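Internal ticket - ligand job 429, pyridoxal-5'-phosphate:
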Amino acid sequence: MKAESLPEIQSLPRVVTTPLPVWPAVDEAIIENVVKVLRSESLSQLGKDDQVNCRFERAWAAYCGVNHALSCNGGTAALAMAVGACAGPGDEVIVPTYTWNASALAVVHANAIPVFADIDPGTYTVLPESIERNITSRTRAVITVHLFGHPCDMDAVTQVAKRHGLVVIEDAAQAHGATYKGRRVGSLGDVGCFSHQGSKNLPAGEGGTLVTNDVELFRRCVTVGAHPARQKQELPPELAETHHVGEFCVNYRMQPLAGAILEAGLPRLDERNAVRRRNAMKLYDMLSDVPGIRPAAIAPDVEHVFHHIPFDYRKEEVDGAPRTLWMQIARAKGAPVTAYVGTPLHLRARVQRHEYYGRGCPWECPFALPRTEPGVGHCPNAEYRCAETELSVYGACFWTECDEALAQLAQAFREASELAPRYAAARRA
Ligand SMILES: Cc1ncc(COP(=O)(O)O)c(C=O)c1O
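stdout (structure tokens):
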């Protein structure tokens, strides 16, 4: 068959010509609050007081529906405090393999061992059965990641955790304000961890928080990562010795200008998430007849906040055109599509080779169970997603009405699905 003469992919005409909305939105409320804090508050807030970081902690705890919140300098720090509060050398913490690497890195930072679980093929969140399959006598906790803004199946996770006495840590870095059965993420497990890095749905540039209803767990988190001044305020004197109050601790404090941005941003979070949800549903609707592209599943009892808008790529619907080719065409057309995870965490080289601190630590710690890292086939759903179907667009930027940009995005997808089989055939010829 004669090869069709097609232009270079890079020279295809762009169809996304309207800029996507800019996120984060630095509005007047944020600027005013930052200036107010600069003029009137301390630029390093160590203890529990009425300054902005603690004001935000109280507002954030109330929003999430919990009693305690602790601010820190990132989502990784929040997770490291949570893990450090319940696991240590030789202990195992179960983490989904399909997530941003920080979910597992926080375990390594606490000197514990990440053990990887598979995901649900529809929602891409951790599969409760896979958590259970990976439990050993050394498992102390499980990290559930509300990836892309879709809450995990928390009832099922909690049942498994209860049966085995595990602490449930929610990684809600991508899911501020999302709900499961009417309750906000962060309040569903034992402790919830958020990132406020600049791309997130509630951003501060950099920053993090953890939230919990468990006062003992909260105190342990405080002793892992808060300033001794804060430790002395949060822990009664009789716990000073057992909890090592005021001794060695990491500095995970949040910069107060981040607190000022968060304090001003929180009142708009729900309204902006509602717009994100509407925009994601519009995009899914516009793409419903486009071959090769399927929206991700949404569980019936959740409110998704679409930090990313995920899709499944189905190459069998586009004559077997490889996903990488489809993505090249969609990008040339102006659609910022990504394959977010790329390689499942359990197959990453540093995990496979047990290389982080050197000398096999923390995996080969003498307190740990002997362990050979499982390879391909350990998490088949995540491996298949990464190899064949993974596709998403960054969703937090759709915080405002943007019908024209959405229609152009859908058109770029449509044209990529029309062109990809032709390019694939031409390459085969
Ligand atoms: C799922 C997840 N967990 C943890 C983190 C870590 O947050 P940070 O970058 O604030 O340390 C991120 C950040 O991208 C994330 O997406």
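Auto-summary: Residues 28-267 form a domain with the Aspartate Aminotransferase; domain 2 fold (CATH 3.40.640.10). The first helix runs from residue 28 to 40.
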